[in-house]
Amino acid sequence: MTYRNAQRLLGWALLSSFTLWSAPGTAAPAEPAAAGKPAQAVAEPVAAPPAAPAVRQKAAASDQTKSEQTPPTPPPAVPISQDSRPTLDAATFINTMRAAWTYKRLAESGGWPSLPSGTVLKTGDKGPLVTLLRQRLALEGDLSTNAASSTLFDAELAGAVKRFQARHGLPESGAVRARTLEAINVPALTRHRQLTASAQRLAGSTFAFGDRYVVVNIPSAAVEAVERGEVARRYVAIVGKVDRPSPVVETRVTAVNLNPTWTVPVSLIKKDIIPHVRKDPAYLDRMKIRILDAKGQEVDPKSLDWSTEKAVNYTLRQDPGAINSLGQMRIDMPNKHAVYMHDTPKKQLFAQDARFHSSGCVRVADVRDFAEWLLRGTSGSSGQWTRDGIDAAIAGNARQDIRLDKPVPVAWVYLTGYATADGAVHFRDDVYGLDAPKTDVMPEPQVVDVPATASIKPKRL
């Protein structure tokens, strides 16, 4: 019996002991992810002022042309933890099972206290709510039990709050405000259920860990480049929206496509393209999307009846470029769901705390840095690929497919609760609502985005 099989037998024994314990009807509703930034109000139209001098009008026209040619600089990506512990390694399954057992006992013993709605606590505050917070954090090990009785919010307590925030993927402010309060008040029973459900999702995994591999934890909306057991680089990501979820995948990164085209999936032609064209006939031209017939001949969009769905009978392909939906790079990872990782022209979305906006694929912030890591050891016409070489190739605007000399294993997982080797237990929001007990087997997720056209044909894994 292999070590991995022994781990799984032990895990299943633990699973059978406490999944039966979960009381029916106690499932907490999925906690919503934090809302993105509110849309700014659009100014009401104002009556035109008297005609300005010709010089002023020319200056205004020049400014307008300049703003159209130079898109605004997007805000920086939201800060993300640079913890060196990977979300997934060979021991995550058994570590998570052990953590689930611990949280089962916590729940059975009464769980932990809740803080009143609207509570805000920060360094320097005093009072009984500070003591309640200390007791709460001590029960999960973020604060020493010897420090659980003080009424002062001091530096030690701020450090404990930061540890709690780090384990929950929250900004490490050291203060208790709305999002941290929400996480603090999640019952121990719900945390136990998250760990159990996450372990169940890992139970059938056959992922081939190696010295280098990639992990995407969908609820975290983050990408980890793991090297020799530690996270070498972690990237902010955008993953599938609730109605177009990112699937669980285990495969290998085989190639990097520079300046890719994008073939629009039939589902998105129906849901997105046709409605856009009905509202704006110039949409396809503005987005550099061509319509091709079965022979590859370009078709005039005006020749199609957009009041119907006949456009799905054609191939809609977006030209390479900065406005391409895949951005300027696609990470090829053959899989039955036809999903992949890629760049995006909508980089402002990386600045949001809740990053569930895609149609199933994963968009990666600083994707060129990620590609440089993936291509390490892969040779090109001028030697091994470097960041400068990648930048130069993209600047050339030519389509280029670079096959990795050694494919890199990649796993997309859905872990709302998991434990690392040092015993730290981490939680994320159950954005897709997969943790609640279900009586029926979930259907296979629908196929989402399809790969961009490529000269490289995927090899059978």
Keywords:
461 residues, alpha+beta, Muramoyl-pentapeptide Carboxypeptidase, domain 1, L,D-transpeptidase catalytic domain-like, four-stranded antiparallel β-sheet
CATH topology of one domain: L,D-transpeptidase catalytic domain-like
β-strand percent reads: 15-25%
DSSP E strands, number = 17
CATH class (first level) name of one domain: Mainly Beta
CATH architecture tag of one domain? Beta Barrel
Please tell me what the overall shape is.
elongated
SS field, number of helical segments: 11
**Order of secondary-structure elements:** HHHHHHHEEEEEHHEEEEEEEHEEHEEE
Q: Look at the structure and name the CATH superfamily of one domain.
A: L,D-transpeptidase catalytic domain-like
Task: Summarize the main sheet.
Answer: 8 strands, mixed, barrel
Give the spatial strand order of the biggest sheet: 1-2-3-12-10-9-4-15
Write down the Rg. 25 Å
Structural class: alpha+beta
Work out the helicity level. Answer: 25-40%
Describe this entry's structure for a reader.
Among the domains are: 112-186, Muramoyl-pentapeptide Carboxypeptidase, domain 1; 192-261 and 320-427, L,D-transpeptidase catalytic domain-like (Beta Barrel); 266-316, no CATH class. The chain has eleven helices and 17 strands. The protein is of the alpha+beta class. It has helices spanning 3-19, 54-69, 92-108, 128-139, 155-167, 178-184, 188-202, 266-279, 283-286, 367-374, 387-395, and strands spanning 212-217, 222-227, 230-240, 249-258, 262-263, 289-292, 298-299, 315-318, 329-332, 341-342, 356-358, 362-364, 379-380, 383-384, 400-413, 417-419, 425-427. The model is unreliable at 18-69 and 440-461 (pLDDT under 50). The relative contact order is 0.17.
